[in-house]
Amino acid sequence: MTGAVLGPTATYVQAATLDEAVAALAAGARPIAGGTDLVVGARHGKAPLPAALVGIHRLPELGHLDTGPDGLRIGATVTHATLVAHPAVLAGWTGLADACAIIGSVATRARGTIGGNVMNASPAMDTGAPLLCLGAVAVLRGPGGERRLPVEELWTGPGTVSAAPDELLVALELPPVPQGPAPTSAGSAYVRLQYRRQMEIAVVGAAAAVRVSDGVVTSARIAITALAPTVRRVPAAEAALVGGRPDEGVLAEAARLAADAALPISDVRASAAYRRAMAEVVVHRAVRTALTRALGGVVPVPASATTFGS
Amino acid sequence: MAQPITLVVNGEEYPLVVDAHRSLLRALREDVGLTGPKEGCDDSECGACLVLVDGLPTNACSYLAVQADGSPITTVEGLGDGDRLSELQEAFLRRGGVQCGFCTPGMLVSATALLRAQQHPDVATIRTALAGNLCRCTGYEGIVAAVAEVAGTGT
């Protein structure tokens, strides 16, 4: 079976610099870092392994995780395990940590990179919804230089992105999250429906990021996972939350509006009808968890383990 | 195209010429000749192929040999010291953590990575750390008990 993906003319270059990697892409090579999607996808027959590969996993420029006044900058090859172990990510960008903590297995998280997850563009990707809610911007580098693109303009369909083939994702930039002082505060969360806790892909998922001032929601972002051709925000649900006190009625309304915006499919993991029904439940839990965290409550990472099962 | 690489496995250097698409698992088993890492699913689901690359747990079936060029690699063969098994391997034997043995190399490598990262993981942490390693014989109890014994958190 493995023989089917082996190309006799395959080539691999280990990029020594970022410029070398970008030049290799311009010459038709595809980037590989952790290989957790690319190689496994080839096994599944999703797409053969590219004949020309450029290894980017050893480029120091792509491996940094920096926080500062400008927010969070995540190099494209930062792994899920590194993100979820980072105190600033846990404290400020908690919803992203919720996602990184539950991707695949320990080995997937040790090898798999956030850049790979983002550019693989699965509608079920765990990091997508929190990145949308936290305002992530993709930094793309091509032969002509760098450009910045909000992630919501990056994903165009299942497995497709608007980046050109000769553009390399080098980093994701997330704006700072206000850390108090009270009474203004912020919180975020990502929750997925899962049949098991590890080695799982989201059946449906949702993220929320909220800011609260004097008990009133001043901003809200909500995004859904595995409920449309791409992860996407649900503006109607966001609008239902903003400007009021987040009581049970408001939460239920926001969850219902988010479920209304879903365009689920039926596949091996769930029927479309089940996904739509669960969308309301999962969005409700994500928003409630984000609000709880914004108001100083502690919900451990990953939120999915807390809000589902024991 | 065949490419020259050097795999550094359990402290030994193996100069090889491999196809760019050859998996690390194939290179270890067929070129280096270390058959401890197993091909179960060839799909990153079962963990039987698990090895450490740069100290990180890695499914060798889904990692390319060319990517591991020059990186320190540890397979199950490298866990013991010559003729002596590691403490963890001894505990697997004592606790009935081995039946058919097919999953055992991956289990041992995953558990070794866990115990290097954390000195005293509790049972829930051990179960999470081994979630990417499937076993069809033992029911996991003996495996988890063995790891917990070495971690000092077992009964």
TL;DR of this structure?
With 310 residues, chain A is of the alpha+beta class. Chain A has helices at 18-26, 38-43, 80-84, 87-92, 94-100, 106-111, 114-120, 128-133, 235-241, 248-260, 272-294, 303-307; strands at residues 11-14, 30-32, 52-55, 65-68, 71-75, 137-142, 145-150, 155-157, 160-161, 168-174, 184-193, 204-213, 216-225, 232-233.
Overview features:
heterodimer; A: 310 residues; alpha+beta; Uridine Diphospho-n-acetylenolpyruvylglucosamine Reductase, domain 2; Uridine Diphospho-n-acetylenolpyruvylglucosamine Reductase, domain 3; Enolase-like, domain 1; 3 domains; five-stranded antiparallel sheet; four-stranded antiparallel sheet; 25% strand; globular; disordered N terminus; B: 155 residues; Ubiquitin-like (UB roll); DNA polymerase, domain 1; five-stranded mixed sheet; 5 strands; elongated
Account of the 3D structure:
The complex is a heterodimer of chains A (310) and B (155). In chain A, helix 9 (235-241) packs antiparallel against helix 10 (248-260) and helix 10 (248-260) runs antiparallel to helix 11 (272-294). Chain A folds into 3 domains: 9-55, Uridine Diphospho-n-acetylenolpyruvylglucosamine Reductase, domain 2, CATH 3.30.43; 60-174, 2-Layer Sandwich (Uridine Diphospho-n-acetylenolpyruvylglucosamine Reductase, domain 3); 184-298, Enolase-like, domain 1. Chain A has helices at 18-26, 38-43, 80-84, 87-92, 94-100, 106-111, 114-120, 128-133, 235-241, 248-260, 272-294, 303-307, and strands spanning 11-14, 30-32, 52-55, 65-68, 71-75, 137-142, 145-150, 155-157, 160-161, 168-174, 184-193, 204-213, 216-225, 232-233. In chain A, the strands form 4 sheets. Chain A has a 5-stranded antiparallel beta sheet with strand order 4-5-10-6-7. The model of chain A is unreliable at 1-7 (pLDDT under 50). Chain A is α+β, with helices and mostly antiparallel strands. In chain A, strand 2, helix 2 (38-43) and strand 3 form a beta-alpha-beta unit. Chain B is elongated and about 55 Å long. Chain B starts with a strand and ends with a helix. Chain B has helices at 24-32, 87-94, 104-117, 123-129, 141-151, and strands at residues 2-9, 12-19, 50-53, 56-59, 72-74. Chain B has 2 domains: 2-78, Ubiquitin-like (UB roll) (Roll), CATH 3.10.20.30; 87-151, Orthogonal Bundle (DNA polymerase, domain 1). Chain B has a 5-stranded mixed beta sheet with strand order 2-1-5-3-4, sandwiched between helices. The mean pLDDT of chain B is 96. Chain B has 155 residues and is α+β, with helices and mostly antiparallel strands.
